[in-house]
Amino acid sequence: MSQSSNSLRDFAARLLDYEGVLVERIEPQGLELLAPAPVAKVLQIPELARLGFAAELPAGAERVGLESDWLERFGHLLGERGQTARVTLPVALPQLSNAERVVEHTVNLQNAVYRVVGVAPAWTRYLVMLFRVTAFSDEKRDGIVKLGFNLANGSVLDAMVDELLSSAIETEGVKDATGLPVSLPPDWTQAQLKSRVARALPERIDAHLAPFLTGMQRRLERDLRRVHDYFNDLRTESLLRLRKHSAAETETARERLRLEAIAREYGAKVADLQQKYALRVDVAWSQTLEIVMPVQRVEILIRRRKGERRITLDWNPLARKLDVPPCEHSYTQSTARLACDDRLHLTSPAAQAPCAGCAKAYCRACHPLQCPKCRRKEG
Ligand SMILES: [Zn+2]
Ligand SMILES: [Zn+2]
Fold first, then answer.
1. What is the mean pLDDT of each run of 10 residues along the chain (379 residues)?
2. Distance between CA atoms of 367 and 112, rounded to whole angstroms?
3. Which ligand is nearest to the CA of 370?
4. What separation in Å is there between the alpha carbon of 333 and the centre of ligand 1?
5. pTM of whole model > 0.85?
6. What's the gap between Cα 131 and its chain centre?
7. 363 CA distance to ligand 1 centroid (A)?
8. Ligand 1 midpoint to CA 345 (Å)
């Protein structure tokens, strides 16, 4: 029984109780609810309902988990209050005894040297956004994609977002605890946030949909194969007849027409299948959670040729993980980085790749819109 399923049940119980639902804990890991009609409607459940939070469900229970759309349903219950929430997690902050090793373990910088120049306790703000992704094809698939950033340095949170979310759900909102931070990283501008989300989200959606697409591709190929085999048999028979009747002219002409009709019909069937399996994906922002918490801030000096640059990476005490330096162009979740010559931007190798037009390599963080040499636009 995982910690997060327990805490999600506690969170749900508190929230539902607050909304006037009669809540009773049942085993294994479930809740039985008697909900006022309006609440039941928002949650899309009957007024008398059972929810299950672990692999094993109570009899007749609906499954609730971080991967399901239940976070969003609870969000609807909170209405405007729930769309953007802020939670402070004043967790204990251990010392980071061997920062060099932690950095070495996490940072994969392929064309520059670096050294740790300092470690100090600090506070940061994480922004975790939930997006509802619905894919329509021959089947429909619903899901939640989570995208998170550390506002201090733009690092993406893929490796720790589930731990952060579970802890945030588990913790009662702290409003006036002592020892709260004096200084926090500032907000990003709307334009900054928008462009980073626009670059980061497609990759996460692709990864999220990959199993669905694989299944769809398999079904499409199976159907195409069937249609092909069927028409191939017809064609083979027709060709055999053609060979047999090679002397009789009327028979031959008829058989040729039949062959043409078979080819036409095959083309139409393939087009039907392509239509049936065409994919449409809807993405809608659903909620944003801001998590404020203490971190160990590691300062790193990066050197490439004559240039140098200082960056900071935060070590998170809940996930016990250090930020991966963000790709300052794509905000990808892959971890290899190159430093650019001019400004020592850190990016993924793809964001320093040769231009498709003139083959000159250039930094997309320096030149986000077009190649500086041939002016070819980034597609
Ligand atoms: Zn170019
Ligand atoms: Zn650059």
1. 64 83 90 89 90 91 83 74 76 92 95 96 94 88 93 96 86 57 87 93 93 91 94 91 78 87 93 89 87 95 95 96 96 96 96 95 94 87
2. 20
3. 1
4. 26
5. no
6. 8
7. 11
8. 19
